[in-house]
Structure formats: C-alpha cells, structure tokens
Amino acid sequence: MILLSFDTEEFDVPREHGVDFTLEQGMAVSTVGTNRILDVLKENGVKATFFCTGNFAEHAPEVMQRIMDEGHEVACHGVDHWQPKETDFSLSKQIVERVTGRQVYGYRQPRMFPVSDAEIEKAGYRYNSSLNPAFIPGRYMHLTSPRTWFMKGKVMQIPASVTPLIRFPLFWLALHNLPQSLYHWMVRRVLRKDGYFVTYFHPWEFYDLKEHPEFRMPFIIKNHSGRQMMQRLDTLIRMLKDRHHEFVTFTEFVNRQHV
User: Fold this and answer.
1) Contacts 24+ apart (CB under 8 A), 57-64
2) DSSP classification of residue 134
3) Confidence band, pLDDT 50/70/90 cuts, at residue 81
4) Which of 105, 111, 125, 169 sits 20 to 30 Å CA-CA off 182?
5) pLDDT, tens digit, for every residue of 155-204?
C-alpha cells in the first residue's frame, strides 16, 4: 500500500532565510502548487491525504473543495505553519471541519515537531503522522523511535518511511535530489520490508522556485522544483502502479489494521 501525503500549508520557507513574506504571498504559491499536485493525481487516478493548515483551509476553500471532489482525504496540519501553538490540535480540527463540512481523523504537526500525545487523543484524532524516524542534522533525531506504525493509547502513529538499517529518509528532499532510479529502488526496498510506504511533499515544491531568486531558497530545495517535480511525482506514481501497488488514504490504512 502507498500512503501518499501532502503538507498543504501556506508557503513560509523564505521567512527561514530572512525574507519578509506575507500570508497572501505564501497562499498564492501554495495554491498554484496544490492544483498542480491535484492535476498529477487526477491524471494517474490515485488517492492521497492532504494535511491542511487552518490558514490554508480558510484562504483557499475552492482548492479544499477540489481536494474532496476528487476523492482525497483532508487531515489537519496545525493552524499557522510559521507559529505552531499548543492549542492548534483542537483549533485546527475545528477550522478544517468547518470549511470542509467533514469529520477529520488525522493530524501532522508543522515541520514534524513533537506533539502532545494526550492532546491528540483528547481532540479526537484517530492517527498522528508527526514522526520522521531518521537523523537529519538540525531537524530530527529519532534513530531510536519505531520505524513503522505503532499505537500510543487509542491513536495510531504513522511515521514517514525510512530505509531499513541506515534509516535514510525517503521524504520530499530525497526525491528532489537523488537520481530517480535510486529513489525508486529504495522505495521498493521499503515496500518489500514493510508492506507499505509513507511519504510526504509540499505544494510549494511544485511551484517554479528557480524563477524567484528573491525567495533565497537553498539549492537542495529548489532543485527539480516546479514542473520538474510534477514529472518526478508522476514517474514515481507510474512506477508504483506498474507494480500493482494500491494507493490508499491514511484513514483507509488505519481501518485496515483493525485497531
């Protein structure tokens, strides 16, 4: 099974590099990127899960509607991506459910920062996907965390996939910068070992970042961005479909584990 997901947030990465960047500018970038992602998914006839911030949901209701109309799952990703708060667990759920008119079952913390397991369960979520069980200097140090799904209380924890043994992360940066053949080989290795694969991307990766030096984006982020990233995602999906792997939403995955 393939659990494809997108952290659907207002683009704020330039702010990490000292650029004054407004919410409106960030939403413009992410709206373009999300529609490009949806185009690729529609072309391939596969489903995914979109973890949406409260900001994105409130400022792009037409995109949220398209996500739902095309059969994808909507989950929560905090409220303001730049300034996560302890109250985001419940407030994010309230906002996204109000905008979509649907119950939300999953949560992912912005930047996959630590979360309160008790608050996640209290807010009524069935799963939490806020763990990248890898070592990434300056970001994650989770080499002793479980590599595959596990339970904490009543909430299923669904970490992002990493390779066995060395725990190489197979998230968005890997597909940007590795040769596609190597990335595909590592994905297939995870599938043979675990029986499923979890990865995540962001809408702004599918925006033409190379055309905007004023964003001050590092090379490893803007490398193969925009339409090149659309092509890379399309090639990945086609490779997995050719091998008869099924694409499921996170809630579908939870339901199949009978927990």
Assistant:
1) 57/95, 57/96, 57/99, 57/100, 58/95, 58/99, 59/10, 59/23, 59/27, 60/27, 60/30, 60/31, 60/34, 61/99, 63/31, 63/34, 63/35, 64/99, 64/100
2) S
3) confident
4) 111
5) 999 999 999 988 899 999 999 999 999 999 999 999 999 999 999 999 99
